[in-house]
Fold Thiamine-phosphate synthase.
Amino acid sequence: MGTVSPPVDYTLYLVTDRGLAAGRSFEDIVREGVEGGVTLVQLREKDLAVRDFVACAVALRNLLGEYRVPLIVNDRVDVALACGAAGVHLGQDDMDCASARRIVGRGRIVGVSVSCVEEAVKAEAQGADYLGVSPVFSTPTKTDTPPAVGLEGLRAIRMAVRLPLVAIGGIKAENAADVIRAGADGLAVVSAIMACPEPRVAARTLKAAIAEARARV
Ligand code: TZP
Ligand code: MG
C-alpha cells in the first residue's frame, strides 16, 4: 500500500531571505519560526549558486524534518527533487506548472504565484496544488512585482478558483485578519518573521491573528 501524505497546512508559510538575518543564524530564525507555529517553509534564496542552493535546501529539509514541517523550494524543480523537498514554488517566469507537474508527479506540491484571475484560472487548470496571490500589498522586500492586488484582487481570485490561496506581500499581524477574511487560506511572510528580532513571538502573533479571524468568518 502506498503512503498517504497528510493534508498540507498552508496557515503560516515562511518564505526565507538570508539577507534579512542581520548577523543571526538563518537556521535559528527558521527554527524559532517553526517553534512559534510556522506550518510550511519556502527556501527562496536568489543569490545562491545552484550547488549552494542544494546544500542549503538539504540542511533546511533536515531541520524541518525534525518538526514534520514541509519544505518548498523556490524557482527550481531540479533542486526540489535533489533535496527531497515536499514541493516547488513557481513564478510566472519559471517553468510552467504543467511541465513541473510532469516532472515531479503527484507526490509533490506545485505552487504557482498569480497576480490576477486569468493567471489563477490557468494555474488551476494546469494542476497547481496551491496559489500564491502576489503581492497583496506592496512591500519593500520585493519591488519587481506586478501592482499589488489588494484585498479586492484577492477576493476576485477567491471567487474564480477552488485551490488553496496563500497571500503574500506586506503581510503583518495588523492586516492578517483582513487578508484571511478576504479569502486567503494561509499567509506567507518574509520580513514579518525573518527580520523580527523574536521570530518565535512573531510567528505566534501571526498564528493567533489568523485563528481569531478564522473563528469570526
Ligand atoms: N513575492 C511577492 S511579495 C514577496 C514575494 C517573495 C515578498 C514578501 O515579503 P514581505 O516581507 O512578507 O512583505
Ligand atoms: Mg520564481
Observations:
- The chain is about 40% helix and 15% strand.
- Residues 15, 134-135, 139, 141-142, 145, 168-171, 189-192 surround TZP (ligand 1) (CB under 6 Å).
- The longest strand covers residues 109-114.
- The radius of gyration is 16 Å.
